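Consider the tokenized backbone below.
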């Protein structure tokens, strides 16, 4: 393998260590995830957290997050989620601000590791119905500028899913509203696009369209069952907190899901 990263998401920390989300303690879950990652015999090149570090945007939740995630032995990159606060993410977690230093601007940035290019896209839009997201026209132009030129292998990180999955509630309330526009913006780069990795759905899942794979990591907090016959999502107590281990080879992407 040429590159390895760990994909975690949706830790939903509260302001105190004993906070629970639908009965699940989120602080010790994230602690355990960090312990597991740090025990890898071969450390990953980096860890990515695809959003909802916090459950309530509280300063205290980011103080706790900095304590836990600061223990990681690998670098970590962050995506803004719909429960997150960009300013606190910058101050306590080191997430980059927009070049204007305005914490209200999207947390969009690019980084490179081992010849691979990674785009972090912030689809949180307070003007749309929550918990949907939406990309601005400027963001779509930024993505198209990347995908319409030659470059190294490309990966996109987001918080939200983009394409329908056959669950009525999820498809109406949990996706970005212009997911089809994003998909079309990515199409020119599909031969060098490793994939789109996201969270928000609290369930490990994959959608493949036109040769582009959208992969969601399960949450370190609680998991949902997204079934086509369910009117609303239900917590799935049989599905443990989890993370994905993603491994790149020259011509292959391998995603392994692990519970803990």
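A designed sequence for it:
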């Amino acid at each position: 393998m040429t590159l390895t990263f760990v994909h975690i998401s949706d830790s939903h920390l509260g302001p105190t260590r004993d906070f629970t989300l639908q009965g699940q303690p989120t602080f010790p879950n994230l602690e355990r995830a960090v312990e597991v990652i740090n025990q890898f015999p071969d450390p990953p090149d980096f860890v990515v957290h695809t959003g909802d570090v916090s459950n309530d945007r509280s300063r205290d939740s980011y103080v706790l997050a900095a304590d836990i995630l600061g223990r990681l032995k690998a670098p970590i990159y962050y995506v803004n989620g719909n429960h997150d606060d960009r300013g606190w993410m910058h101050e306590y977690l080191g997430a980059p601000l927009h070049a204007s230093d305005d914490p209200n601007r999207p947390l969009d940035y690019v980084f490179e590791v081992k010849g691979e290019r990674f785009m972090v896209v912030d689809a949180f839009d307070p003007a749309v119905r929550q918990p949907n997201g939406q990309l601005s026209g400027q963001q779509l132009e930024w993505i198209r500028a990347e995908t319409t030129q030659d470059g190294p292998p490309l990966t996109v990180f987001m918080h939200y899913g983009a394409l329908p999955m056959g669950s009525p509630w999820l498809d109406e309330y949990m996706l970005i509203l212009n997911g089809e526009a994003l998909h079309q913006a990515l199409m020119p780069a599909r031969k060098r696009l490793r994939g789109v990795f996201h969270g928000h759905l609290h369930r490990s899942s994959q959608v493949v369209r036109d040769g582009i794979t959208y992969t969601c990591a399960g949450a370190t907090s609680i998991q949902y069952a997204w079934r086509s016959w369910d009117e609303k999502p239900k917590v799935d107590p049989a599905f443990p907190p989890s993370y994905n281990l993603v491994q790149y080879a020259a011509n292959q992407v391998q995603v392994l899901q692990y519970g803990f």
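The CA atoms of residues 30 and 220 lie 6 Å apart.
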